[in-house]
Amino acid sequence: MQTSMESEDTKKIQEMKTDLNLLLECLKYQMDNAFSQKEALVTIHSICQQNSNAGLYFREIGGLMFVKDLAKSSEHSMVKEAALYTLGAVAEQNVYCQQTLCTPELFEDLTWFLSNNDSNTNLKRMSVYVILVLVSNNRTGQTLVRETGCISVLSQLFKTVLSKYELNLSDENVFQSYQLWSSVCSTLCVCVNNPQNDENQMLCSSLFPHANDWLINCTKPEIIRPICSFIGLTLANNTYVQKYFISVGGLDVLSQVLVQLESDSHKTLSSAKLAVVVTKTVDACIADNPTFGVVLSKYHIVSKLLALLLHESLDSGEKFSIILTVGHCTEDCEENQYDLFKSNGLPLMIQVLTESQNEELNKAATFVLHNCKKITEKLSLSLGEYSFDENEEQLKDVNMKEKNLEDYWKKAKEILHRIEQLEREGNEERVQREKYKDCVSSVNINIQNTLKHLHADSSGGGSKAEDRDKSQSRKLQSYKSHEVMSKACTNYDQMKTLLKSANPVNACYRESGQNKTLCKASSSCNQNLREETTFEKKNFVSQSSDHIFKHPTPIAKNTKQQLPVTDPFTLCSDIINKEVIGFLTTDNCSKILKYRCSGCIAVGKSLNSRTFSKLLHSCPYQCDRHKVIVEAEDRYKSGLRKSLICNKKILLTPCRRRKLNNESTTPGGIKKRRIRKNFTEEEVNYLFNGVKKMGNHWNLILWSFPFQQGRKAVDLAHKYHKLTKRPKCVAP
Fold first, then answer.
1. DSSP 280-302
2. How many domains does the chain have?
């Protein structure tokens, strides 16, 4: 069965190679027929999409470079578009093809296509698509797109492709222009991010004023989503670019858009989702500079975010982004902290902390609570002792306007008490664990003392021994530590580090299941080209998962049936041993790693099949999975020993190698030779034609022509050299 499957795979690979060779020949000999060349390019694209190795083979036979030259030299626009689309698809499928095409010459050609006024919209879209594929996850491509001036042309397209703020996507021409503009946005995003490129970020920051104009004048999702992605990735982890964005009023514009979308979110679900996208962009801007949160206080962004957090349609990932943004807003801004407290945000954070099972949400909520701890203490004091430093007069005005400020102080005291209680529970948990460790070390001594007393009273105190046994078991159980989940982190710096370890920008732009269309076909290529490719944003937020191993049941080997024991000392010892074993097996905190299987612990070490087998056999406690492996290996070895004893043979070489040796020799020990097959006249013609077209590529010639079965590449080489040595033989 396996042999037949391998033969089928080999046959498919052979057919794929033959098809690519024939299609390449068709491209070369159909230079005057644009339609045939387009059909051949579409077929090559389809083959490379179905087989990941097809692109490599197409590169080896020179097809990749030929298609690149064809895209540059062809006079027909439809051939250029199909050639560029084929190059992009092959490079996207295989990284080696991407590196082969990543040359300054190709970037210069693509720049010329984009800057040429005679190029139609679809040709420009195909050029942008190739640039996107070459630059994606490739620092060399990011450097070339800058050095060749291609990024400047892309920036110009970003400004000029869409001329009107009012988009009528039902119009075909406007829709094609919008697709080109969206592809340019995606390409600029990969030019600055993954890997991050500071120089490209500086160049793209010049587009911020134009992006602000679009955000102010157009609130359609088709515009806001690409622009927010571009802004967030351009200023990610770059303090200088973030300062420039704020200096041109970018953060104010985002705040205004967020306020508008939050008010619309009560009417439409799409506005709530779009508001989360803008929230992520705001977070990317202030994550490295918490002092910029003062700009947001003018628009009461914290209260808007809390109102958005209560929206029922949001999932846990979107709520995490909102809470994290609230944490960065309140990290170093007392105005935002007071806005959070006044909007009843602290009880909401505590509710999230106590009710949510999501670890990321709990960390973000704890981050917000620690940010507001100082202001909570201030609000819990009297009005005379409370001050906002520079904003003391402003606070008095607020106090005069709001009669219920005392209620806020009461809530502040309750919240502060709640936080301190959570911290005390965490401290008690650590103390209990330390006591538990000391207790476990003294368990054996207590057991020995108890057994001595039981043995002394065994003659006439059976009931007393039973009572003491029960009291001892209760005493042992009283030492069990209760797992108390401390929701509030006791170390503020540690919590801050945990939250900032995840790139806020990467956390911002994880939209699960959402794909961005990079390029689609125009009317000239809609019938034959599938020109829709997607660029999926990956979730960069790592999620930790704890692997819990079961405590293996002790295995007693080679045990024999024993008679019932009537000795009171032994009976009491068995009872207490069972209690201790049951007590140890219930602990999942500190003892669970000590009884893990050796095979599980050894993962990642340099082991081979022999040393790993010895390790498993020497382990007294094996998990279910490794226990099955050991038993299967033992059964196989025992069966192999029995077969060797029956055959009275000792094999020093693998069975497969011996089988192959037996097949390759006759019973007399003489090796078989292949049956000689003379070359026919047709085969000679095939040979000369192949050398004329392909040179001395004997394997390629062998695959391209129907030679006799059993013919090898070396046979073709020997035959050709013999024929060329004869003076009478002339190539047809």
1. HHHHHHHSS-GGGHHHHHTTTHH
2. 1
φ/ψ of 340, rounded to 5, equals -65, -45
Cβ neighbours of residue 561 under 8 Å, at least 6 residues apart? none
| Spatial separation of the C-alpha atoms in residues 334 and 608, rounded to whole Å | 60
The first and second tokens of residue 646, run together, are: 């029956």
Which residue type is seen at 433?
R
- Tell me if 698 is assigned to some domain: yes
Amino acid (1-letter code) at residue 183? S
Kindly state the helix (H) or strand (E) to which residue 44 belongs, with its residue range. Answer: helix 34-50
Q: What angle do CA 580, 581, 584 make, to 5 degrees?
A: 85
* Residue 490 burial by Cβ neighbours in a 10 Å radius (0-12, 13-18, 19+): middle
Contact (CB, 8 A) for 246 and 295: yes
| Number of separate helices (H) and strands (E) present in the chain | 38, 2
403 inside domain? no
368, 330 in Cβ contact below 8 A?
yes
> What is the DSSP secondary structure assignment for residue 665, as one 8-state letter?
B
**Both tokens of residue 171?**
């119009």
Q: Are the beta carbons of 672 and 665 closer than 8 angstroms?
A: yes
Rounded-to-integer distance, Cα 564 and Cα 580, Å: 22
Cα distance between residue 594 and residue 437, in whole Å: 14
SS3 697: coil
- For residues 83 and 23, the answer to whether their CB atoms sit within 8 Å is no
Backbone angles phi, psi at 536, to 5 degrees: -90, 130
* Max Cα-Cα span within the chain: 121
CA distance 504 to 501: 9
What's the rounded Cα separation, in Å, for the pair 631 and 628? 5
Lowest mean per-residue pLDDT among 209-218, 253-262, 389-398: 389-398
Phi, psi of 673 (to 5 degrees): -115, 155
Q: Could you tell me where the beta strands, DSSP code E, fall in 352-496?
A: none
Residue 30 corresponds to which tokens in the numbers above? 């159909």
Q: Using CA atoms, how far apart are residues 214 and 182, in angstroms rounded to an integer?
A: 13
Are the C-beta atoms of 67 and 83 separated by less than 8 Å? yes
Please check whether residue 687 lies inside any domain of the structure. yes
Q: How far is the C-alpha of 434 from the C-alpha of 86, rounded, in Å?
A: 66
Categorize the per-residue pLDDT at 168 as very low, low, confident or very high, splitting at 50, 70 and 90. Answer: confident
With respect to residue 36, please indicate whether it lies within any of the assigned structural domains. no
Angle formed by the axes of helices 221-234 and 208-217, to 10°?
150
* CATH code of the domain in which 699 resides: 1.10.10.60
User: Is residue 675 a contact partner of residue 654, using CB atoms and an 8 Å limit?
Assistant: no
**CA 158, CA 230: separation in Å to the nearest integer?**
11
Give the CA count within 13 Å in the CB-facing half-sphere of 515: 7
- Rounded Cα distance between 182 and 189, Å, is 11
Chain segment 125-156, per-residue pLDDT in tens: 999 999 999 999 999 999 999 999 999 999 99
| Closest to 532 in 3D by CA, of 124, 126, 172 | 126
DSSP E strands in 18-137: the ranges are none
Query: pLDDT tens across 435-472, in order?
Result: 655 654 554 455 455 444 444 444 444 444 444 444 44
239's torsion region: left (phi>0), alpha (psi -120 to 50) or beta? alpha
Give the contacts of 668 (CB within 8 A, at least 6 positions apart). Answer: none
> Can you give the residue range of the structural domain that contains 688?
681-725
Q: Which amino acid is at 485?
A: M
Residue with tokens 């807003």: 329
Instruction: Identify the residue with better confidence: 438 or 392.
Output: 438
